[in-house]
Design brief:
By secondary structure, this protein is an all-alpha fold. The chain has helices at about 15-25, 35-65, 65-70, 100-135, 140-150, 155-165, 170-200, 200-210, 215-225, 225-250, 260-265, 270, 280-300.
Length: about 300
């Protein structure tokens, strides 16, 4: 007896179901998980993308300063003092006859390097202290917490001024001192997130398998707190730029004749009284715009809590 193979005809509703599925996917496309640049663009929004463009522009200025700067930032002329805007000098010249536009471009280097040192040192110190406290707990956690509480009692600027008074004024000294002052803010947030990860079942499972605490911390806990670390670095970059500019304004950071935005604001202060406002105003606007861009991007990516700051 020959058995005939039964052929199943495709349901007539298949195409209709596919169409409905495609329509639902298009309608609820915002609910579909996205990653990479699309996720960043979605979080930032239009204003955030503009701020990100400003950050990239400032970074390009710093990197390409020798190529795009029309003049030597340190070469001046007595006969060219306080020249007004022109095609030759887009932002005029300062009290020493130096091109302000060229000094703004070159000043992006020191204005970015200092905060970069601050956030990198801060991230390393804060992450190390936080993860050590979370993993060992007990007396180690209490000891590290007491150290952070002591650092909380000292304002960042006070630590920087004390460091400059001891080691002398320089960008590196001021940056490391500010990094120490920033550490308790970041460590507090990283510790809270890492503590939650420490109590999850996968950590206990890894311990039962004989995996060392160092490996668990580095390979599992650390990747799960990287968002808070990176977001905190972005927000702290703006704070560091403001405070380093303030130190340069007071003569405790970058020293003349180095091109630096904070130092340019200070150097142009005397010229303001004579009606030559270009140097201070343009350098001040560069600081404000860059800080606002970093702050907004950091807020949109992770929020203020990621930096541990409440001010």
């Amino acid at each position: 007896m020959t058995q005939q193979k039964s052929t199943r005809k495709p349901s007539t509703n298949t195409s209709a179901q596919d169409t409905v599925a495609v329509q639902l996917l298009r309608k609820h496309r915002g609910d579909v998980p996205i990653s990479g640049w699309r996720l960043i663009a979605k979080r930032l929004g239009p204003i955030g993308i503009v701020c990100l463009g400003v950050i990239l522009l400032v970074v390009l200025m710093a990197v390409l300063a020798p190529v795009i700067a029309p003049y030597d930032p340190y070469e001046g002329s007595v006969t060219a003092r306080h020249e007004a805007w022109s095609l030759a000098h887009l932002m005029g010249t300062d009290q020493s006859g130096r091109d302000i536009f060229s000094r703004i471009i070159w000043g992006a280097r020191t204005s970015l390097v200092g905060p970069l040192i601050v956030i990198v040192v801060t991230a390393v110190l804060a992450t190390t202290l936080a993860l050590t406290a979370v993993w060992f707990g007990g007396k180690v956690d209490a000891f590290i917490s007491r150290i952070l509480d002591i650092l909380f009692a000292f304002p960042n600027m006070l630590l920087a001024i004390l460091a400059v008074a001891i080691f002398g004024p320089s960008l590196l000294t001021a940056s490391i001192a500010l990094a120490i002052g920033f550490t308790p803010y970041s460590a507090r947030v990283i510790r809270s997130v890492a503590l939650r990860e420490r109590n999850l079942p996968y950590v206990s499972s890894a311990q039962l398998q004989g995996i060392s605490g160092f490996v668990i911390t580095v390979r599992h806990i650390l990747p799960n707190v990287r968002t808070q670390i990176l977001t905190g670095m972005t927000i702290n970059f703006g704070y560091a730029m403001i405070e380093l500019a303030a130190l340069s304004f007071l003569g405790l950071g970058v020293q003349p004749p180095t091109a630096d935005w904070g130092l340019m604001v200070s150097n142009g202060q005397a010229s303001l009284q004579q009606g030559y406002w270009e140097q201070s105003i343009f350098a001040g606007l560069a600081i404000v715009i860059t800080v606002a861009a970093f702050g907004y991007v950091g807020e949109q990516l992770g929020g203020r809590r990621a930096s541990g700051r409440t001010r």
